[in-house]
Specification:
Length: 132
């Protein structure tokens, strides 16, 4: 994500122009989301940290889609390609977190008695099925 931020900053600088251009505004929005995600450190349970990361990454995914559309509409294919690469990264991160979440939740519940031993596998299957 730090690479995303650095590359997007460099690209925004290269675009120059008005600070309120549609591409610069859309890019700045994505930058803010990514920077906030990187800087976030909490002392909560691991599953809650990942939940918050999942939320921020999901916001970045739709923001990248908006940036890509803005770039294509404004004929900026270079920025659209950069954003497309990072969109793919972030969608993979979202899926990875979703697949890990059942294990993290059960780990956070570790001190509870009588936990269903099949919960992780069942929850992972339900998560994967929801994306099909």
């Amino acid at each position: 994500l730090e690479q995303h931020v650095n590359s997007l900053r460099t690209r925004l600088d290269a675009l120059g122009g008005q600070a309120t251009s549609p591409i610069k505004e859309a890019g700045a929005s994505v930058l803010g989301i990514a920077a906030g995600l990187i800087d976030k450190i909490r002392s909560e349970e691991v599953s809650k940290n990942f939940r918050d990361n999942y939320t921020a990454l999901s916001l970045s995914v739709i923001s990248y889609e908006m940036l890509i559309t803005t770039c294509l509409a404004c004929n900026d294919n270079e920025t659209a390609e950069l954003a497309t690469r990072y969109l793919k990264d972030n969608t993979r991160f979202v899926m990875d977190i979703g697949n890990m979440m059942p294990s993290l939740v059960v780990r956070d519940l570790g001190d509870k008695a009588n936990l269903n031993q099949n919960a992780v596998q069942d929850a992972q299957q339900r998560y994967k099925a929801s994306w099909q």
